[in-house]
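Here we describe the complex-level prediction in full. Unlike the single-chain runs in Section 2.1, the two entities below were treated as one system.
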Amino acid sequence: MSDNKEYKFSDETLATAQRIIRRYPEGKEKSALIPLLHLAQAEFDGWLSPGAMDCVSALLKIQPIEAYEVASFYSMFNLKPVGKCVIEVCRTSSCWLLGAEDIVRHIEKKLNIHVGETTKDGMFTLKTVECLGSCGTAPMLQCGGDYYENLTFDKVDNLLEKMKSEDKRRVYTKDDMINI
Amino acid sequence: MGRKLLLANDHIEGIRKLDVYRKHGGYSSLEKALKTMTPDQVVEEVKASGLRGRGGAGFPTGMKWGFIAKPAGVPRYVVCNADESEPGTFKDRYLMERIPHLLIEGMIASSYALGARTSYIYIRGEYFYVARILEQAIAEAYEAGLLGKNIMNSGFDHDCHVQVGAGAYICGEETALLESLEGKRGNPRIKPPFPAVAGLYGCPTVVNNVETIAAVVPIIKDGGAAYAAIGVGKSTGTKLISASGHINKPGVYEIELGVPVEEFIYSDEYCGGIRNGKKLKAVVAGGSSVPILPADLILKTANGESRLMTYESLADGGFASGTMLGSGGFIVMDEDTSVVKNLWNFTRFYHHESCGQCSPCREGTGWMEKILHKILDGNGTLSDVDLLWDIQSKIEGKTICPLGDAAAWPVASAIRHFRSEFEEYVRNGKSIKDVKHYFRLNQVAEA
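The structure predicted for the assembly as a whole is:
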């Protein structure tokens, strides 16, 4: 199963993939499946098309179905195209107690989309997600691996503005993620 | 001020770095274990400490370690459960983000005790930036000869790797975690065999929570007896509590087990009381899965004794009037909170996170969510409340893993302690429907 696009990891990503595969005992390379699907998602526009998943299963020498069944189980894998910035608002427990529903409604209004949809310009996708372990700093949202906490409407507005003006794809595997 | 064993140095600038961590005594426990103790002696100290699993179940760690099978020629594994997904829990994230080397040191020491040549830290995918922090710490440890071959000239070889998940609450269940670590869907396995006999790749494996493994470091440093001297009865040592909800000072607190709940909620040293001068309505004391308790029962047991932050005291009275320490995810709700709507939020969560293997959980969680939605929408009947009770009772204890129980207990406890609130929704649902069910953000703007 594949579309017309060619799915091939860059040399750099391939080296990372090989480094990850070496963490597991010989014959147990399939253990690298989830980390490699993350790499594929980051490499191929933030979502896993069948072609992107096939690229991973070929690398791990497993059947394509083994990658599909795993990708469809875990909520972080997008099986449809997404915007450059996937806004994931925590909706569980303490975030809910402290106004997550209002944050979601505010973003829906601001971006003129509903949860699960992508803006026409392809900039934003809005998702709600389950507890992200940021309950002490609720309400919160995540985008591209970064946590944005203690949200207010103003903070959300500024964040969306900033993301829009920077106009870049935010994905989980970016190297400048930590500032020690 | 209570003693701190894990977070004593979390405020020190640069403690994330190996050199700063070592300057403050870091890796001295590992050195002590490798140079002066046999693996069995380390296990004995952990047994003597009375340490119990900090992920939620509270199973004695030393006993779990004692179960590990040691067939000749078969590798053993230590796996750290850093999948922290229990709603209301964020202590492991805090610990790994602040003091990653404490976990790495614990991993190496635990692996030495258990004879594991390789260990994995399975961290939830959403904690991607934390995984990066851990990877940097591991790289530093390799460079300093604390990982790899012949660690500290002891002859002990060890490799430690980080593995990220991809968003699934169920992977916090240890056998689902192992499935996920093997590159599969996170469907829990039927036990037995337990991981101690057949875990990762079918080999003997110990799976421990982040905080549990970190606690091994102070246990080696001061000895199991010193650790056991802290706390009350079988609740020994310190525990990280993630405090959140309607309190003045949310955050992660390391407490000596045995602090009174009332002190924990109202003292300025911890939660600092209920925000906006409101009254306490209810508490979920150990993550969303444990029974919710109304204010009077969380502060005092049914016998009128002061409730303490210990495994035993929180469970006093069984589920009729008690709850569980669980993961230490302490969620506080003020007088304006709708227990029914909060329950809907939790139940929706379990429905979403059920892996779908066992029918009672897969179907039951969905039915409960729908019935709660109906009640909240003002279309419920009194028999719906009984139906909810009936469904939860048919999930509990009838599934492969404890997610079924975790979905059932919040429903049972909410009905047990707040039945009148459900009935109020049934009687006056149409008028309650449009009322603010919960704290609204615009109240902040208005205030």
